[in-house]
Every structure is written in structure tokens, then in C-alpha cells.
């Protein structure tokens, strides 16, 4: 769909921007009066090495603007892949977002969170007026790199970093047994096998969903709503790994496409939606059959049991 098709509809524009994968941060500050603020943001980016500058953007409607404007410093906390709950917490408007949230104080008193991938403590350097947002530029005075796997945001949902199976072109076409990773100790490591398996097939299913006119986040939400139409927003967030705002926007998109009826807190998959779901399930069944054609029915049941055990271990 092009911009001409959507006439720059805000929701469609956000969906298009969602094609660009980014990290997830919580930016914090402490004002001169001691008030602490924090917002979830995926607009973080580098600007300059000399001097060391970074930027992020803040919605002009945010009640945190006055504090960020007056604070001497702010901290960009880069979230780790297991910090979805923290991201969702600071994405919601609340009286005191820090109530019950463990944190330390960095430069200028800006809150810092433990177990992040890292953080950048910045002096307020420049504020740029840009449409409906303020671009906040900070001069990095201190940073910490913990090397934890980061939380990723893509197509309206949370994701995580996985090594790409084709990320490095082999220097040789030699396919001898010694160069085959599956014939080494890695081939007996279940965690390695699970990661590589997800890498190998994930894009295939995403493309199948797109060919049916649905983004991965929309197809996941539609499948969840078929089984749990009365699930609360928090349950839906957990089931599809998406922020609350994106869940709500995905539901609105599904409604626009005629796949979902929404009446207050009541959600019902329409007849058209059930037809689309049949297409989705049929596509997934065919893909599953092709990939696991060598497994017997009994072996498939054992495989499913193993995956369920892995899922319940978290």
C-alpha cells in the first residue's frame, strides 16, 4: 500500500513506519523540584561521535515535557529482551510511574534500571521543535554497556534479536562434514537447535501472512481473539507480545478490514474474519506438513510436548 492509497492516514502511516525495526528504551529524568518522569520510546538514535550526541523524540502532548525541558540530565535505559513488562508499564499514563519500581539515580538524579542492555546518561544539549514532537538531543557524559540481548520493536509488536542464518557469506563452498555445525556439539544443544529452527522458518510464515493481507501482529491477534474473545487488554498484550496501544490499533485495523466487530469491551470475529482465519490455519498446516513431513504422528506429539515444556519454563 502506498502513501497515495492511504492519503497519509495516521494509523496507516504508523504501520508503515513499523517496518523499521528498532530497540526499545525508557527515557527518564528528574526535575529541579524532584519530580521524576519516564517514557517508553523507540525513537532513540545516535547523532555524533565528536561530540558524543544522541537523540530521541517526545510527544508534545506528554505531561513529562516540562520535566525533561527543565532537567539538567536525562538517562536513556536500553531495555533487555525480558523487560517487556517494564516497557508496558512506562508506556501507560499513571500518577506515579516509579511507585513500586526498583531504580537507582544517575547524573542529575535521572532514574536508572538494573538488568538493562545498557544506558546513556546525557546532559540536556538541545531541543528541536519538530511537528507534533520535540526532538531531544543529549550529550553523553557517561554510559554503561551490559551486553544483554535487547528488546526489539517491529511491525507493532515486541521481538528479540536472533542471529540471521545468512548473515555471513561462506568464504568457501566446501560442505564437508567438518564444516557442518549440526555434526558438532552444537547439533546436540537444544537451545542452539531451537534458535536456528526459528531463524530458518520464521520469515516463511511472515511472508505467508502478508500474502493473505495481514501483518504478523494482526494475524497473531486475530488467532488469539478467535480463542479468547473476552481476554482483557493485559492478557492480549502477553499473548501477542505487543504494547497496549499497538494491540488497540491492530484491533482497529482488523475491524476496518471487516474481520472483527468491536462494541466496547466486547470483541467478536466476523464471518469474514473466520474465513480469513481458515486461510491462515490452512496455510500454516501446509507449511507445518512440508517442514515436518519426516516425523510420524507420535514423534510430532513428543515434539509438541517438548515445546510446551520449554514455554512453561519461563
UniProtKB/TrEMBL annotation:
Keywords, sorted A to Z: Oxidoreductase
GO MF, one example: FMN binding
Domain Flavin reductase like: 17-160
Similarity remark: Belongs to the non-flavoprotein flavin reductase family.
Cross-referenced NCBIfam families: HphnlacHdxRed
Protein name (Swiss-Prot/TrEMBL): Flavin oxidoreductase
Species assigned in the record: Pseudomonas cavernae
Amino acid at each position: 500500500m502506498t502513501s497515495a492509497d492511504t492519503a497519509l492516514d495516521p494509523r496507516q502511516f504508523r504501520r508503515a513506519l513499523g517496518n523499521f525495526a528498532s530497540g526499545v528504551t525508557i527515557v527518564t529524568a528528574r526535575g529541579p523540584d524532584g519530580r521524576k518522569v519516564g517514557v517508553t520510546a523507540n525513537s532513540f538514535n545516535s547523532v555524533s561521535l565528536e561530540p558524543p550526541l544522541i537523540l530521541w523524540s517526545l510527544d508534545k502532548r506528554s505531561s513529562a515535557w516540562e520535566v525533561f525541558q527543565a532537567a539538567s540530565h536525562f538517562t536513556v535505559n536500553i531495555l533487555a529482551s525480558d523487560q517487556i513488562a517494564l516497557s508496558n508499564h512506562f508506556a501507560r499514563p499513571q500518577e506515579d510511574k516509579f511507585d513500586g519500581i526498583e531504580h537507582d539515580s544517575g547524573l542529575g538524579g535521572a532514574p536508572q534500571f538494573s538488568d538493562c542492555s545498557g544506558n546513556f546518561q546525557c546532559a540536556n544539549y538541545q531541543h528541536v521543535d519538530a511537528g507534533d514532537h520535540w526532538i531531544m538531543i543529549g550529550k553523553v557524559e557517561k554510559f554503561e554497556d551490559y551486553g544483554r540481548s535487547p528488546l526489539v520493536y517491529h511491525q507493532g509488536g515486541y521481538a528479540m534479536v536472533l542471529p540471521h542464518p545468512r548473515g555471513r557469506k561462506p568464504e568457501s563452498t566446501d560442505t564437508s562434514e567438518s564444516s557442518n555445525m549440526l555434526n558438532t556439539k552444537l547439533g546436540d544443544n537444544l537451545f542452539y537447535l531451537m534458535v536456528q529452527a526459528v531463524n530458518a522458518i520464521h520469515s516463511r510464515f511472515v511472508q505467508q501472512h502478508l500474502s493473505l493481507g495481514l501483518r504478523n501482529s494482526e494475524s497473531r491477534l486475530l488467532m488469539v481473539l478467535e480463542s479468547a474473545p473476552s481476554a482483557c487488554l493485559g492478557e492480549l498484550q502477553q499473548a501477542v507480545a505487543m504494547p497496549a496501544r499497538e494491540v488497540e490499533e491492530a484491533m482497529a485495523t482488523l475491524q476496518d478490514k471487516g474481520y472483527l466487530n468491536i462494541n466496547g469491551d466486547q470483541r467478536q470475529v466476523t464471518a469474514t474474519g473466520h474465513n480469513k482465519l481458515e486461510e491462515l490455519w490452512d496455510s500454516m498446516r501446509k507449511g507445518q506438513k512440508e517442514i515436518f513431513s519426516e516425523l510420524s504422528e507420535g514423534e510430532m506429539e513428543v515434539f509438541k510436548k517438548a515445546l510446551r515444556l520449554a514455554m512453561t519454563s519461563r
